[in-house]
Amino acid sequence: MNILFKILGATSLRVDDEFDDHWGKRQERGLLGVLLVNSPGQRLSADELASWLWDTDSAAGRLPNLRSLISKVKTGLQNRRSPAEVRSRQGMYWIEVDPEAVDYHYFRSSLRTAKAASKEGRHQDALNLLDDAIGLWQGPPLSDLSSARADHWRLQSTQVMLAARCTRMDCLLALEHYEDVLDELEGSLAQDIMDPRLAILRMRALHGLGRVEDITPFYLAYWKNFQEMTGSEPPDSVRRWEAELRRGGSSWLPSAEVEVQPASPVAQYLPPQPWEFHGRQDLLADLTRLVDERSTGLVAVDGPAGIGKTTLVVQWAHQAVGRVADRVLFVELQGYTGGPPLGLGEVVGVLLAQLNVAADRIPSAEQRMIRLRQLLEQQRTLVVLDDARDSAQVREVLKAVSGSLVLVTSRKHLDGLVVRNGAYHFEVPALTEPEVFQWLHTELGARALAEPEAVQQLAAVCSGIPLAVRILAQHAATRASQSLTSLALELQDRRVLLKLGGADDEEATIEAVLNSSYRALETDQQELLRLLGRYPGRDLEIGCAAALSDRPAEVVSRALDVLVALHLIDRVDGERYQLHDLVREYAAQLPEPADVSDAALRRMADWAVWTVHNAASVIFPSRDPVPMEGFETRVLPRSFGDYEAAMQWCEQRRHDLVAVSAATRVHGLDGHCWRIGNCAWEIFRLQGFYAEAEDMLAAAVDAARAEEDLLGLAGSLNNLGVCRMLLGDLAGARRHVNEASHMFDSIGKSFGVHSCLHNLASCEMKGGNLAAALDIYNSALQLVSNGGEPFRKAGTLRRIAEVLRRQGRHDEAMVNCRDAIWIYQTIDDPRGFGDALAELAMIYRKIGDSESAYAYACQSLSVTEAAHDVDSAAIAAGLIAGVALDSGRYTDALRYGKQAVARYQWLRDAHGEADAWDVVAAALESTGEAQGAAEGRARAKEIRRNLGLTAIDP
Length: 954
Description:
Layout: E1 5-6, E2 12-15, E3 18-20, H1 26-37, E4 44-45, H2 46-54, H3 63-79, E5 85-89, E6 92-96, H4 103-119, H5 123-134, H6 148-174, H7 178-186, H8 196-208, H9 215-230, H10 236-246, H11 281-291, E7 297-302, H12 309-320, E8 327-332, H13 344-354, H14 365-378, E9 381-386, H15 391-401, E10 405-410, H16 415-421, E11 424-427, H17 433-444, H18 446-450, H19 452-461, H20 466-477, H21 484-490, H22 494-499, H23 510-519, H24 523-532, E12 539-541, H25 542-549, H26 553-565, E13 569-571, E14 576-579, H27 581-589, H28 594-619, H29 643-652, H30 654-666, H31 670-686, H32 690-707, H33 710-726, H34 730-746, H35 750-766, H36 770-784, H37 790-806, H38 810-827, H39 830-846, H40 850-866, H41 870-886, H42 890-907, H43 910-926, H44 930-947
Parallel strand pairs: 7-10, 7-11, 8-9, 9-10
Antiparallel strand pairs: 1-2, 2-3, 4-6, 5-6, 12-14, 13-14
Helix pairs in contact: 1-3, 4-5, 4-6, 5-6, 6-8, 7-8, 8-9, 8-10, 11-12, 13-14, 15-16, 17-19, 17-20, 19-21, 24-26, 24-27, 25-26, 25-28, 28-29, 28-30, 28-31, 30-31, 30-32, 31-32, 31-33, 32-33, 33-34, 33-35, 34-35, 35-36, 35-37, 36-37, 37-38, 37-39, 38-39, 39-40, 39-41, 40-41, 41-42, 41-43, ...
Protein name: Tetratricopeptide repeat protein
Pfam families: BTAD, NB-ARC, TPR_12
InterPro entries: AAA+_ATPase, BTAD, NB-ARC, P-loop_NTPase, TPR-like_helical_dom_sf, TPR_rpt, WH-like_DNA-bd_sf
């Protein structure tokens, strides 16, 4: 037992070996207790926390107090080095803690374990567990709180305690400790004597002691008192026990002859269970745990169409009969069948019919409701309300069945039931690919064993939707002669999968199921879903959706909320959304007028162009922007407040920008295509995503050529050349840059000619031809010396410094490098500044001034990290490691060498990674770690062997 927190009494926490229940003020202790009660992981809104603390349904006026309390609780836990942590996100609060470390949750866990042990006949083990668990109760739970909600929870928790004591007395009876049971019943439990469980325990104890003659008098007195106090007769189970024990039956288990079958059918109205049920064992277990200690309550189960909600609930309901319910009633509410959803009167009529009552013989609706409640009170009843339209429909029905255990299924988020009716919520997720793979293996048998790769592909196509798996498996079964590989290839087009299964029953297709959700949407929501199906990316944010639909963002946000509620799309975070794969295909094939679709795609492209243009303007403030003449638009693109926000957005939306770029090319929006590529490529390069950068630039070249925009074509060719140079394709780089240079010259754009000269010189330097590189750089410098373009001049000076350093002309190199640094500082270009600082550090290293080299390299790393320049930061880290190694600072050499390795791996720069491994190996060897040094050298050697190199590059 490792209890760290107590809520069974004053809320206390363990500090060292003692518990402190005065660690904070009463409300602070109360707040921690509430979070611990709702652990693990249950998230509470400010309103919910307020209702626990202050007996109010709203946090209005209390929010500052609540924030202060949360802050104090966080500080209190941190100061005491508690492993628990109070977390918050999007206005929700929870505590991360091991439930076994909280006495209440440990108590409940022990109770479950003890019950299982008792059922297995290990009564003494169960008794020991229960004694330890019951001993945890030190007073009224959550005694620091006095709100109505806390009182209600305390009442529930005392029922859990009573259940534990009943289980304990069951174990005592099994061990023939009859006197102990009577002592306990006549002691602290005497006030609860009307509880039927305690009455039965008393009669069993009397029977065990041989006092059979005392059983009937006790029962008659109990029956009279119960009737006087409650106005009704005791439960039939008490009478059955009395009759059985009076006749001499066992005091441990009742004989079969006294088991009375319920008057109404047990579960005949439930849909049949499937022959094979796959996965979901965790959800079945969660449902069982939830209702294990209570026979009433409301559980809301939702999930996308076809996810298997009804199958799951039916499977669990069949298992629940006899354990948590004596009978099951099932009503299909027809929320999404296409017809009108059932109203309260119709549901009451269905339920009465299942209870063998003719509703039409009861004259009024009110009397039918009363009769239904009377019947439901007679036995533990599980009521399954399947396919609810929304919370409002269910809330009406709850008026008739609220005293039962009610399970509701819906393809819509039933947030209203959770918030207003206290429902426990389960969302049924998609099956995992391994679960689908195993299911298909079971269904396909030997064919699956023969073609496992095809089964893997089929599993991926199903997107974890059980309905899709069933349809696909049945389809495969009807095509026994078709290879699974061929079938997997056919179904890569998910439009085929949408329509499978309709030959016998048109409603037995994924398309038909999604149609029913689509019909439930309003007209503008339907249009938005159709347009979302045309969006080429995976993640979409509200601004882009607003551009697609040509509606204000706040209107679109509300429509997106509806689509989320119906599980047609997922909310990734506060502003990003995703379509399920099959829903995307479904939405894309819904008919939409061509002019509407084309206009939506153009607005979406406008939004993407201007947003990535805004990002590039923030990231490269001193650069000439991509020309945007003729691209004025009414859409509202995203703007960025700082460098970090722009970089983060581009990284998160990388795949979407690539997809949008490709889509604009396909749909003839060539001006959009080359602008997106030229705005985004260098941002991607800074982040190490060279492949995406190259793909976008290649598309940009084709688009600009198709549009016959010479400026766009020249810029795209030039940038593609730089990208190819960075990827090691010097021949391709020279070809693209030379073509771009001629084009810039023909249209009189000197800045473009300079850029091309600069890039050609870089190609020569990368190829080892330093003299040619210096000549070209000097030519480029002449073009911009008086041209008023300082960042171009600074870049050329910095490159000239690099060539001079590599030629051994260190004094000249330092002059050019310092000139470049001064210009970068003047124009506030952090990326160029960090790059030039690294070059200055290299010069000092060459002339033997290790201290200056180390200082400038560290400054470069700091600047480039702040600028999110992964490439320059890798160079700076490697440079620090090398200088540290030269000067005997082996700890620093190892630290920064490992940083360089990680950065070069991220950049997929094998040359840089191999050089960094050399430094790491040398540092390890210098500190006596021979094994690590050998492994580092082996890694560097392997990398160079894969590159076709035999020695370190100069």
